[in-house]
Amino acid sequence: MKILGRNRTVISVVLVAIFLLSISAVHAGEIISRDPYVSAIVADASNGRILYKENSEALVYPASVVKLMDLLIFVELIEKGVVKLTDKVSVTAEAAKIGGTQVWLEAGEEFTVDEMLYALMIKSANDVAAALAIHIAGTKDGFVKMMNKRAAELGMSYTEFNSVHGLPPSAGQKHDVTTARDIAILACEAARHPLVFRYSNTKVKNFREVEDVVVMRNHNRLLGKVEGCDGFKTGYIRVAGFSLASTVKRNDKRIVAVVMGSKFKETRDVKARELIETAFMKLALGEESAANSEYLVNRKIAKAYVQPVVIATEQKESPGTEKKKKTKNKSEKKKEESGSDPEPLSKRGAISKILAGLLLLVAGGVTTFFVFRRKHHEKSRDKYYW
After folding, report:
1. Residues 133, 164: contact at Cβ < 8 Å?
2. Running DSSP on this structure, what letter comes out for residue 167?
3. How many CA atoms lie less than 13 Å away from 87 in the CB half-sphere?
4. Dihedrals φ, ψ of 196, to 5°?
5. Strands 204-207 and 50-54, bridge-based pairing
6. Are 318 and 189 in contact (CB under 8 A)?
7. Largest CA distance in the chain
8. What is the spatial distance between Cα 149 and Cα 253, in angstroms, rounded to a whole number?
9. Angle at CA 374, nearest 5°, toward 130 and 182?
10. Which end of the chain is more exposed for a tag (fewer CB within 10 A), N or C?
11. CA within 13 Å, CB half, 227
12. Do 103 and 123 touch, CB atoms closer than 8 A?
């Protein structure tokens, strides 16, 4: 019996180690996209009322969707008179060196803010994102602070921007992190500014009209295909998969639809379209009652946010699962957080503490392994990101 008990203990340690391995893989930059997607949400843009959500609090990598925040900040500065569309932006050597999708800026070139905002949203140009950031804040890091400040003001509680473009982080840097819900909050705010659509609703445009012309084509394939679609932004990096923050206006109704972490670009677009059509159908039939609705940001009639979870451990849920969770009382939630009922320290408790210490050692080893692996593969990152 003792031998059997020891075997069970060993098996438990191995299983937990495997679990820790999976979590470490996410933080080390392993692929986290899913089929059809990691998370999705649809909301009424006029008031933030949620029309549909699935895993909307799961932490994800936004990739180039972060450029929607870049655009919002510049549009708000333009509205305040701090920046003009005709202002010239000088390209620095630092901005010209940015990789991934770009318009091949060269150090010393000058373009208007207007020209660069088109390139930011249509081409998803990373070099342009860097040039604009440096122009207004002096450094990319300075602009990232502006992004995070604005995110906090909007109530994007689980978003942390660490770049101005959404590219995979270099050694020693961190990923941009957000949730589908937070991106929906950003999209709703962007929809309040008419100037945003000047850039998000343009399908094709040239950058540089004389020499070295770059024909820019919008990566948002819903434009021109989904009735009323006029924005916003796609995103992709290898580890994150394909994401999209979109908006559609029909008659006097505007919605935002966000799909994050699809394995395939085509699936992302199909699912986004399905969510959009379903949302408008529900609105037309009056199935959505404002009285008992949940909203993107906390307000008196809105329910509290659900604590987000790392997507490595998040599992897809049936449509009614989230609703059931919210009916649990506080004592049940405490049990879920602790994993078990509290009990006095005993012999079993002492053994558990020893096992916990061993697991920490295992976790440390796993983390070290993946950090090394990440550095080893740093040079083999994808060439293109959008």
Report:
1. yes
2. P
3. 17
4. -55, -40
5. unpaired
6. no
7. 83
8. 29
9. 50
10. N
11. 5
12. yes
Residues 50-106 have pLDDT tens digits of: 999 999 999 999 999 999 999 999 999 999 999 999 999 999 999 999 999 999 999
Helix (H) or strand (E) segment spanning residue 4: helix 2-27
Is residue 223 within 8 Å of 203, Cβ to Cβ? Answer: yes
Q: Is the pLDDT of residue 12 over 90?
A: no
Find all residues with CB under 8 Å of 219, minimum gap 6, and list them.
124, 234, 386
- Tell me which CATH code domain 28-321+360-380 carries: 3.40.710.10
Q: Could you identify the residue written with the tokens 């697991």?
A: 359
Cα distance between residue 236 and residue 243, in whole Å: 6
Three-point CA angle 198, 204, 208, nearest 5°: 90
- In which residue are the tokens 């770049």 written? 163
Check: CB of residue 32 under 8 Å from CB of residue 38.
yes
User: What is the distance of C-alpha 297 from the center of its chain?
Assistant: 17
Could you tell me the sign of the dihedral formed by the alpha carbons of 55, 58, 62, 66, in that order? positive
Q: Phi then psi for 30, rounded to 5 degrees?
A: -75, 160
Which pair of tokens denotes residue 252?
A: 């006097």
Query: What amino acid occupies position 166?
Result: G
Q: Which amino acid, 252?
A: D
In degrees and rounded to multiples of 5, residue 304 shows phi and psi of: -70, 155
